[in-house]
Amino acid sequence: MYKDVYEKWLHHPNLDPSYKEVLENMDEKEKSDAFYTTIEFGTAGMRGLLGPGTNRINIHTIRKANVGFAEYIVAHGKEAMERGVAIGYDNRHMSYEFAMDSAKVLATFNIRSYVFESLRPTPELSFAVRHFNCFGGIMVTASHNPKEYNGYKLYDEKGCQLVPALAQQVIDRVNAVEDELAITANPSADQEKLITVIGKDVDEEYYENVLSIQLNPNVNKDNVKIIFTPEHGTANIPVKEVYTRAGYHFVAVEEQCTPDPDFSNTPTPNPEEKGAYDLALEYAKREDADIILVCDPDADRMGVGVKHEGEWHLLTGNQSGAVLIEYIFSQLIDKDRMPNNPVMFNTVVTGDLGEKIADKYGVATEKTLTGFKFIGEKVAKYEKTNEKQYVFGYEESYGSLIKPFVRDKDAPQACLMLAEAACYYKEKGKTLVDVLYDLYAELGYYEESQTSLKLAGQEGAARIQEILATLRTSNVEAINGVKVTRFEDYKECRIVEDGKESELTGFTKSDVLKYYLEDGSWIAIRPSGTEPKCKFYYCVKGTSLEDAHSKTLAYQKAMDEMIK
């Protein structure tokens, strides 16, 4: 079947000329992978390899998505069309072109759009949706993926990524488009007037809101030096601007401040991977810095490095989240600013330490599925009912939201608060690692980690599904000799505990499995929604950090054996 679709693309009169030669030079495996399926929305929208094909991100698949989104907006009436859509984009190949083309496709449906004049962070796009009272938003980005990728994320009127029920309405319309190659982006002169270019006014409002999160704006900043890198992405100007206005001392990794779509000066733009810190560590040693802050290309994620006792420690997303929670909640209590009925949100694959800290400060924790849209959905719910008051939200994947004037992960906010925390604790003779170790001593020694099995292409996707199907039906009773006390299957919505089965409620169906173990640890497995990976999450509790690490390695080895 893929051969027929390939031939259709190759000979279609509307095929973008830039794709012709690429198609002609494909071998059979490349043809199959590019055309065997249609690229779909995952946990963070539509994301994939750049290039021609139905299973690729290109001008034609983007247009198809835009037609589906446009029809969804039109179905909500003239007011929705007039309120329109805010559109942002990052530094990647074709991001600008996809963004402008999106605005033109929407204009052909008489839908207004507000397009940023140049690259901007994902959180600022979310902010712009709210700022202009738009009906929705589009962000062209592949977040932390390698240079070969790009993507397309959709937002609702609250500036939150579309939750499954809304996304499905778009997907149904996208799937109904029979020929993506027949779509053109040729608005009339009057329709062109529906496209507005935006920039500095939104920037200023966003910066002011980011600066408003400070809890100790007058903290002594003179004794902390920060190394900051945007990894060639959109955090470059916003973080520098916020730090300058707030008075922090920072040195930018200049080689990584250019908006380079090839990420030429970094091994990886993903702060979850050690290579993202290589050049920043060189700067940090040369400058005798205290902390390193690394943002991914669309500035929703932030990674942290901390100098402690002369050595550099790279914190995981769980660890940096725990430090932020401890600092923010302790300050809210000390300043008598903790609201009534406070609530924190994280996900079913986020480690347990953050929840233990929240308990200590009387803050409830509610779990969501992976994907910050689910946290955004919770924020909107309590904003309406006023039953609980939002104080923090985070994922283990290096993303957090401090104040919900944005409804997505916000790295500029996180950078500002981490810098403040570093200054606050240095005045007390502590590093952020000291803070973390104090939390371990008080609440338990946790090693919270993640491993990934990368399986690309059609065969890889099939293998990932095979792994999950096998685990789902295997009735695993023990892992590494430790009894499984509870098993949760978020796809089949069931719980197995003490040999009895019950219904798992409160979550949209999702392909996630989670094993709770007798020693207080847990292991979760899920396919990535944005990359060709099967992810394994470990939250292991030990009598010491060394014990927790040893147990983690044993559990990882046991899981590797189980999926062979």
Would you give an account of this structure?
The chain is of the alpha/beta class. The strands form 4 sheets. Strands 17, 18, 19, 20, 21, 22, 23 and 24 form an 8-stranded antiparallel beta sheet that branches. A 7-stranded mixed beta sheet has the order 1-2-6-5-3-4-7, sandwiched between helices. The protein has a 5-stranded mixed beta sheet with strand order 9-8-10-11-12, sandwiched between helices. It is globular, with a radius of gyration of 23 Å. The mean pLDDT is 96. Strand 15 and strand 16 form a beta hairpin. The chain contains 19 helices and 24 strands. Helices cover 40% and strands 23% of the residues. The two termini are 31 Å apart. Helix 1 packs across helix 3 and helix 13 packs across helix 16.
Summed up, the helix count is 19
Structural class by helix and strand composition: alpha/beta
Count all strands and give the number. Answer: 24
Oligomer: single chain
Largest sheet: 8 strands, antiparallel
Helix content: 25-40%
Overall spatial form: globular
- Are there runs of 5+ residues with pLDDT below 50, and where? none
End-to-end Cα distance, whole Å, is: 31 Å
Strand residues, percent: 15-25%
- Based on CA atoms alone, the radius of gyration comes out at 23 Å
The overall pLDDT, averaged over residues, is 96
